[in-house]
Amino acid sequence: MTWDPFGTLARTLWITGGQWAGKSTVADILAVRCGLTAYHYDYHDARGHLDRRIAAGVELPDAEQDYVRDTPERTAARVLAGFPRRFEWALDDLRALVSGRPVIAEGWGLRPELVVPIARSTRQVLVMVPTEGFRRYQAATLPRAGALSQPVSDPELAQRNRLERDRLIAADAVRSARELGVRVLEVDGSRDAEAVADVVADHFGL
């Protein structure tokens, strides 16, 4: 592990997995309940790391290319291939955080195979993924869950391809978790966010 003067990385609690599993919501609930410091990967990756992505030549999202012209398999493969480089930037952020209680870091780019070597125990890692039915329900009923970041020539095809890309990336997180002995929590919408947070808190021993 690279230099970490405050030991933040070894104490961090990690929530990773698939898009729209409730990772951010659960992290925020537990941060308020337990006085933790929440780190939201997606926010920093899309904003704070943008200049680093450009300088490093990491491909930026292009909705037309990713969801219309290309296949979900190739798009998922590109995303997964880029995660290790982007993870290093997240670690830079986390090394700078000091908290009297653990940091809880969440995001789909915090892959099990990347965080397990840093954590002291696999109990510090949890993979959350939505069931396929719940993900489709969200896309159909929640405006933000069904919205694309850019206009595309074929919105229906783009939405189908994006959902399939998300499924493939979530499945990869599950595969990795099972190989490493990390717990997987499937979210199907039958429990509200507070109830899911109860399960996550119990897993982390909070």
Automatic annotation (TrEMBL):
InterPro entries: P-loop_NTPase. This is Dephospho-CoA kinase. It comes from Saccharothrix syringae (Nocardiopsis syringae).
